[in-house]
Predict the structure of nicotinamidase.
Amino acid sequence: MARALIVVDVQNDFCEGGSLPVTGGARVAADIGELLHRWSSGAVGPPYDVVVATKDHHVDPGAHWSVKPDFVASWPVHCKVGTDGAGFHPNLDPQPFDEVFYKGEHAAAYSGFEGRTASGEALTDWLRSRDVSHVDVCGIATDHCVRATALDSAAAGFTTRVLTALCAGVAEESTAAAVAEMTGAGIEIA
């Protein structure tokens, strides 16, 4: 009955100043960084047994990148492997992560459950091998990768909660629609 925190895509390109910025991304990075610092230092904090992160990790994701993006299925170049944009935002302290899951090398990938460790282990298998039953999700963006990760978490049978105070969404309308969809899937919104 272990609990995991999944920190979704808190990367430079998704924060202010990046190639695909989400308003509030840097603030979310700082708030999650503070939470992780409290947790890893043993201060009073959340009861997580494991903390993992996901990263967009694009080499050549095909039509996912476009010079004329539609911002639905195609996007500007972002999180290209080897660039500063693919790195964790400096407000986020990645030290406490037990593992990082990389997604989207050669195709679009929104859910952290599409990601794999550097050695190739899938997120679902990794969590189950550590007896995780409950998952909290936070990060960027509420209406895209957080949504997809939370929905896949619930579909995989994990009791799932989204920490909206530690998320940033692209737009108010799409964020509200994502929250409604996640609620409808039995995900707790906190």
Summary: Helices lie at 25-40, 123-128, 142-155, 172-184.
